């Protein structure tokens, strides 16, 4: 009766009215509430749930009840507002939807019917513009009242109507729920003489990621949190309730608090993230400088090899003497503390002579990459105002117009050799500059980072403590110098000269060839290898860590995120040779590190005398598990940017936590979170900065250089992943009206001005950049580069890809399909998906499930699946043939299901 009634009632105008309301109300709602999880979201329903309970203090309970009354709201609305405030902070979202059940017994006729009438309402709330809790409460009140007025539309109808791309990984419309149970469990059914009693069901299950049920009983509030156990660890659930409790207590006491000011951390957690996990202080010998420590080491091990390059070597004593002579020569040219010396050299022994020579003269070196365009080098030299340049004859010729003194280490060798070989006497303090390294600048010009001796010494000590001390006794290690001097990774290599290591600068031609590189490492029995994850991936392919591959015992991966694949390989390698090192140039190379082991990539713990703070946008410490921006404090923090006071004060901010006078924190722009064990997980950037093959690039700098081109009107540069999942730069260019500009011209323009890694690999010419509603460039609407716009082709590469691309093109009715394009973005939907899958089953004779296309929505990915299935020899179901049996035919499963209902 009810069903008939409901169908008649919910039709025509009434139905349209309700649908129209919900359609408008949920327009553009975020499909997923991104609560940070402990485990990645996997496809498929895994309903097992964990649960935790909490109780609020009587004071807070009373406060919330009174608040609700004062504001003309219900307790439900007040608690929901608190829950949503917490979710907003967790997810970093200011628009979110929470589901809440309504009983659906709003008619007399159904009051004493047995049955389930419950409906779920999607309550969307706007947390934007940082409202006070009071303001939020009034928003929630309005949203709830409206939703109640439209509560008849069944949730299933709403999903049917509103949700376009269903995801297998999460529930549609909302993934988090809230309910207030006021029955207290006592007004149970009355069934004559029967006395029903509640009892616990078996293992808890949930259809949602998180569900909070609050209960009001005997004047006090308590709650149960149910969470999907596949996503969250029990301690995360417990922590979440602690945060909710702190939040509710705070808003009960003062509902005028802005949401960003509402505390989440209790004192214990605050002390843990601010202090306990940053207890890294170590006393280092005071008053020394980099070059004085080197001199001490040279006196200790004069005959040990300091540098080996191809077939030439320098012992510690020889390096000490050569560097001393160069230093004396530089002194004559006016080099002294705080004087900058450009260093532009090919790889070789002289690299180390130059670095130590400059330091011994009291100056600071400014490395320039000889491979970058001469225009670029001139820009940097001019920006640095370096009065002296150390280089080689053939490189000097390219830097015509430089007005300072030029020292050519090859051509001027004899002049330098005439200097005495004792160190010059110079007053250098630990606070003096050691080097200036340039990094990409988003406003268009690179910026020089000023690093002091004390920071370099701390790096040396920190690495020794964290990595080298654990290597056990034995000869000091043979260390590769792989990255160029202009890349600050080189510092952590050459600084090993202070500990007696032998350095192996890797020749350029070897470095770029993974096969040659492994050979080189094997031949020289190199033990410590520094590299970027991109290079490491290739070297692993060459058997770097396999038995008999090389003698490398420690791999120091740094410079960009270490992906899971490489992490796994390193973690599974005997002896666990892998290290993940994290750090911006502004904090002296490395500030956090982790041995590679366990299941997930982390950047580990802060190194000696470094402190890590994960802060929310209000500058308050983020709770464990919740992403925030990483701020770094400690001895490694650089002095600032050369000649850029404004940028310096923007990025180097006062340190409110250490209590040290004048201490500053560097704002990294990196998104990270603390894990429960006190290690940091890297989650990406908060700005547009990208890393490509370990090179730090501000797309804004590339844009600025492109804009200098006369025919370029507008430009936007972004990093996109190509078919193989590799990041590359893509430039979107709008030429001046009525003009034409070729990709080749743009490429050349850049090649003359920026290093190769900053030249985009694809140029897309557009008539206009796509804009979003607020008039800004809509990054997501930028089209992927077409085949001809990219150097590499994205056309099918294998037979399987070819056949699949053909099927797609036919089913989708389009001409050509790139192997990395998503089926659903090309207009595919589940019906067409069915067609693709059935044709693919036929063509490849494999049992391909429909969900395979949802999980692997590109030709490339699906082809991989199919190939896997074929290798596994999975048999296809036999074709359906016309039945020849006599007598009644069996029912299909679907028919059976129908009959059984
Ligand atoms: P750079 O100044 O070239 O050292 O670049 C620093 C930036 O590179 C950091 O702010 C991070 O964004 C990124 N980065 C460096 N090392 C790592 C790492 N181990 N994992 C993830 N990102 C890293
Ligand atoms: Mg770095």
Describe this structure in words.
By secondary structure, the protein is an alpha/beta fold. It is built from 28 helices and 32 strands. The protein has a five-stranded mixed sheet. Strands 22, 23, 25, 26 and 27 form a five-stranded antiparallel sheet that branches. Strand 31 (727-735), helix 23 and strand 32 (762-765) form a beta-alpha-beta unit. The longest helix is centred in the first third of the chain and has 20 residues, at 234-253. It is globular, with a radius of gyration of 33 Å. It starts with a helix and ends with a helix. The model is unreliable at 787-793 and 894-901 (pLDDT under 50). Bound molecules: adenosine monophosphate (AMP) and magnesium ion. The site of adenosine monophosphate has 20 residues, from strand 19, strand 26 and strand 27.
Spell out the key features of this protein.
single chain; 901 residues; alpha/beta; 5-stranded mixed sheet; 28 helices; binds adenosine monophosphate; binds magnesium ion
């Amino acid at each position: 009766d009810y069903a008939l009634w409901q169908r008649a009632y919910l039709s025509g105008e009434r139905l349209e009215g309700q649908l129209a309301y919900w359609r408008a109300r949920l327009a553009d709602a975020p499909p997923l509430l991104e609560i940070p999880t402990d485990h990645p979201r996997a496809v498929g329903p895994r309903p097992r749930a964990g649960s935790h309970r909490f109780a609020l203090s009587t004071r807070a309970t009373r406060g919330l009840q009174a608040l609700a009354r004062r504001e003309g709201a219900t307790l439900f609305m007040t608690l929901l507002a608190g829950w949503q405030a917490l979710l907003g902070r967790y997810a970093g979202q200011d628009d979110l939807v929470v589901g809440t059940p309504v009983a659906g017994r709003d008619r007399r006729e159904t009051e004493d019917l047995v049955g389930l009438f419950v409906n779920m309402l999607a309550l969307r709330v706007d947390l934007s513009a940082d409202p006070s809790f009071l303001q939020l409460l009034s928003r929630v009140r309005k949203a709830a009242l409206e939703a109640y007025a439209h509560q008849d539309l069944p949730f299933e109808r709403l999903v049917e109507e509103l949700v376009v791309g269903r995801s297998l990984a999460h529930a549609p419309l909302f993934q988090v729920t809230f309910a207030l149970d006021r029955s207290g469990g006592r007004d149970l059914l009355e069934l004559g003489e029967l006395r029903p009693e509640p009892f616990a069901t078996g293992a808890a299950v949930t259809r949602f990621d998180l569900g909070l049920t609050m209960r009001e009983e005997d004047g006090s509030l308590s709650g149960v949190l149910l969470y999907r156990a596949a996503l969250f660890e029990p301690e995360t659930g417990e922590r979440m309730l602690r945060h909710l409790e702190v939040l509710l207590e705070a808003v009960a006491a003062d509902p005028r608090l802005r949401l960003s000011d509402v505390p989440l951390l209790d004192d214990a957690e605050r002390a843990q993230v601010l202090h306990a996990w940053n207890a890294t202080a170590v006393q280092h010998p005071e008053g020394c400088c980099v070059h004085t420590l080197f001199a001490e080491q040279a006196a200790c091990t004069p005959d040990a090899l300091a540098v080996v390059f191809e077939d030439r070597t320098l012992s510690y004593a020889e390096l000490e003497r050569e560097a001393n002579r160069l230093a004396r020569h530089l002194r004559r040219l006016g080099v002294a503390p705080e004087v900058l010396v450009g260093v532009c050299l090919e790889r070789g022994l002289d690299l180390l002579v130059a670095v130590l020579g400059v330091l011994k003269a009291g100056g600071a070196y400014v490395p320039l990459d000889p491979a970058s365009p001469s225009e670029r080098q001139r820009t940097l030299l001019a920006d640095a105002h370096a009065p002296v340049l150390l280089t080689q004859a053939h490189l000097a010729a390219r830097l015509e117009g430089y007005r300072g003194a030029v020292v050519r280490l090859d051509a001027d060798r004899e002049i330098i050799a005439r200097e005495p070989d004792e160190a010059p006497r110079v007053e250098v303090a630990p606070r003096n500059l050691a080097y200036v390294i340039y990094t990409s600048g988003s406003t268009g010009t690179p910026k020089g980072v000023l690093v002091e001796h004390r920071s370099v010494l701390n790096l040396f000590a920190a690495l020794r403590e964290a990595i080298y001390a654990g290597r056990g006794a034995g000869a000091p290690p043979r260390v590769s110098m792989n990255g160029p001097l202009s890349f600050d990774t080189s510092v952590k290599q050459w600084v090993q000269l202070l500990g007696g290591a032998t350095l192996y600068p890797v020749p350029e031609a070897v470095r770029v060839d993974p096969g040659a590189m492994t050979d080189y490492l094997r031949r020289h029995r190199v033990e410590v290898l520094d590299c970027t994850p991109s290079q490491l991936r290739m070297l692993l392919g060459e058997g770097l860590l396999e038995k008999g591959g090389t003698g490398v015992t420690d791999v120091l991966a740094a410079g960009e995120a270490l992906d899971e694949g490489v992490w796994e390989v390193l973690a599974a390698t005997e002896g666990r040779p892998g290290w993940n090192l994290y750090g911006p140039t502004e904090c002296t190379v490395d500030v956090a590190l982790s041995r590679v082991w366990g299941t997930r990539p982390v950047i580990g713990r802060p190194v000696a005398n470094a402190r890590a703070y994960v802060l929310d946008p209000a500058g308050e410490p983020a709770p464990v598990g919740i992403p925030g921006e990483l701020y770094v404090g400690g001895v490694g923090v650089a002095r600032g940017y050369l000649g850029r006071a404004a940028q310096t004060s923007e990025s180097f901010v006062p340190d409110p936590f250490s209590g040290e006078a004048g201490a500053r924190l560097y704002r990294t722009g990196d998104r990270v979170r603390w894990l429960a064990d006190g290690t940091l997980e890297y989650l990406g950037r908060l700005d547009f900065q990208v890393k490509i093959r370990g090179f730090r690039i501000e797309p804004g700098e590339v844009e600025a250089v492109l804009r200098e081109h006369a025919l370029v009107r507008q430009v936007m540069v972004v990093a996109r992943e190509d078919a193989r999942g590799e990041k590359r730069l893509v430039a979107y260019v709008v030429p001046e009206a009525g003009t034409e500009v070729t990709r080749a011209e743009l490429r050349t323009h850049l090649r003359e001005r920026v290093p190769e890694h900053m030249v985009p690999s694809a140029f897309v010419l557009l008539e206009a950049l796509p804009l979003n509603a607020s008039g800004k460039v809509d990054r997501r609407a930028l089209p992927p580069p077409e085949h001809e716009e990219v150097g590499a082709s994205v056309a099918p590469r294998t037979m399987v890809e070819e056949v699949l691309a053909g099927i797609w093109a036919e089913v989708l009715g389009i001409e050509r399909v790139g192997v990395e394009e998503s089926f659903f973005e090309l207009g595919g939907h589940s019906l067409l998906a069915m067609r693709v899958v059935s044709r693919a089953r036929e063509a490849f004779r494999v049992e391909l499930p429909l969900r395979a296309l949802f999980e692997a929505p590109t030709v490339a990915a699906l082809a991989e699946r199919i190939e896997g299935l074929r290798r596994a020899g999975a048999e296809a179901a036999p074709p359906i043939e016309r039945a020849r049996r006599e007598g009644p035919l069996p029912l299909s499963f679907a028919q059976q299901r129908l009959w059984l209902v």
